[in-house]
Amino acid sequence: GLDIIRSKSVSQLSAIRMIFEPGTDLMRARQLVSEKMAVVTPTLPTWAAPPLMLQPLSATSRCMKIGLSSDSLSVIDLSMLTYWKLNDAILAVPGVANVAIWGERIRLQAVEVVPEKMVEYGVTLDEVMEATADALDAGLLFYSEGAMIGTGGWIETQDRRLGVRHILPITNPDDLGKVAVGTKNGVKVRLSDVAEVVEDHQQMAGDAIINDSIGLMLIVEKLPWGNTKDITEGVEAAIAKLKPGLPGVEIDTEIFRPATYIDMSIDNLSEALLIACVLVIIILFIFLFEWRVTLISSVAIPLSLMAGALVLYFRGATINTMILAGMVIALGAVVDDAIIDVENIMRRLRLARAEGSNKSTFRIILDASIEVRGAIIFATLIEVVALVPVFFMKGLSGAFFQPLATSYAIAIMASLIVALTVTPAMSYILLRNAPLHKREPAILRWMHKVYNSILSGIVNKPSRAYIVVGITILAGLLVMPRLGQSLLPSFKERDFLMHWVTKPGTSWPEMNRITIKSSKELRSIEGVRNFGAHIGQAFYMDEVVGVNFGENWISISPEVDYDETVDKIQSLVDGYPGLYRDVLTYLKERIREVLTGTSEAIV
């Protein structure tokens, strides 16, 4: 069923967003909404366009922003080329839900009347409008045959069938200018006598700025089940295929390309996991000082994570940021489970051999595992119970945080199973004939020595402990006001979004001027590779804003310092007083809007 319904309206445009409960059949929900729309549409005012239902979109639906510009083509020609060639090719890519074209200018024939000439020829504005409308009323060509009225069709001759096609007589401004409006002194008055007939475009409700000049921006949106990397590769392949047929058109696919961040994240994650595994192995060997024990723990840790990932896979979950975060948080418990069992087994084996016990190795390992089993199980249950409130969270907050809790719980449960099954089995295989001499690592001896000296000094003079505690508390109190806290992860994306909102009533040309100025200044910052902005609205898009609302998008090179470049961008943006502006990443903006229903700051 329907969970949340939201609406947003500006002048001449309203949008309704519907969010259904998890598990709802999407196709059935769309069918029911479509039926309701069909009932409501006839009751709307005649001046209102029929409502349109967009494709279902992912929460992070925008998977590409493509900038188009040309030095040899007008924006109108570029718009027609994009609409008839690029648009359909991109929509054909699997996973693409919608392609919105910002800055699109539809070719029209405009009649711009000259009042002085209208007075001179005695023609009224109504007459001009009526003559123009009649001339461009491109209805179907009808014919009658007896009692039947038909359209199109064909004419039969003795040996051939000739098709009938209606060719419009007016195809350009010159043809339209020859249309008669009336007569004066027996002479025909034409549109060209009282008006300028030119090729123009519709009134603009939005626009696009690409690298310091007016152009087009294509925003590619994906379906909820679409894969960003696959869609990006498919779109780029479609563009490359059409590129030879687009002479003089500059195509910039790097304005916003989250697939780049995904590739970079995968590379960084793989590198971090490799380094972490090496460090864990080194630390385990240093502190346990037994290669067999280190090997057992090193196998148990990734095995637990892989088992958790398999459970998530069979549950139909897709790997996303929150699921990865849950797995990372669970890593500490996984490492602890891997060490505690094998360490107790090793201790019991050493003790049994020192005492000359006649118990079998199998029995010793089994007893050692049972000895710590209760502690491991209860510790795991406590960790899982602590997550229970998260599973009772409702609405979008619950949908956002529950994957993190689920992946965490599954990872530690998998770790528990591995600790109770795989670890004892590997211990039996590797440790039953091992010498297991008790050798304390040198680093532990040094740490014990340092600790004993510190502890003896504190025991002899307790005042030192009070002084240290007091200094620590005071330092904490001094630092506390400067500490910032965020419950959400911070992503170092290389693509940035800036909301660019002027006062209501700002004109379209003025908004373009301000945006072009900001484009030039932002592109002058070292490391900023490209700039793209969309202003106001576009056809078939869910942005319900006025022409005073814009979004600036830039991408920065991976070669420059991230924090330093962000500071420069923020400083430049802050230099535009009198308008609302911010600097965000796309994921941060989407998290805010999904959780609150708006991308604006809460005040």
Structural notes for this entry:
The chain has helices at 26-40, 75-91, 115-121, 125-135, 173-177, 191-194, 228-242, 258-288, 291-314, 321-329, 331-355, 361-385, 388-391, 395-431, 442-460, 462-479, 508-523, 562-573, 586-596; strands at residues 2-10, 13-20, 62-70, 96-102, 108-113, 142-145, 148-151, 154-156, 161-163, 180-184, 187-190, 195-200, 206-210, 213-214, 216-222, 249-256, 495-501, 528-536, 549-556, 580-581. With 603 residues, the chain is α+β, with helices and mostly antiparallel strands. The protein folds into four domains: 1-53, no CATH class; 109-136 and 163-200, Multidrug efflux transporter AcrB TolC docking domain, DN and DC subdomains, CATH 3.30.2090.10; 262-476, Up-down Bundle (Multidrug efflux transporter AcrB transmembrane fold), CATH 1.20.1640; 495-596, Multidrug efflux transporter AcrB pore domain (Alpha-Beta Plaits, 2-Layer Sandwich). Helix 10 packs across helix 14.
The end-to-end distance, rounded to whole angstroms, is 32 Å
Superfamily at the CATH H level of the largest domain? Multidrug efflux transporter AcrB transmembrane domain
Helix content: 40-55%
Q: Give me the number of helical elements.
A: 19
Computed Rg: 35 Å
Say how many strands there are: 20
Instruction: Trace the largest sheet across and list its strands.
Output: 14-13-18-19-17-20
Spatial shape: elongated
Structural class computed from helices and strand pairing: alpha+beta
CATH topology of the largest domain: Multidrug efflux transporter AcrB transmembrane fold
Mean pLDDT across all amino acids:
84
β-strand percent reads 15-25%
Q: Can you identify the CATH class of the largest domain?
A: Mainly Alpha
How would a textbook summarize the main sheet? Answer: 6 strands, antiparallel
Tell me which CATH architecture of the largest domain applies here. Answer: Up-down Bundle
Uncertain spans: none
Provide the number of structural domains. Answer: 4
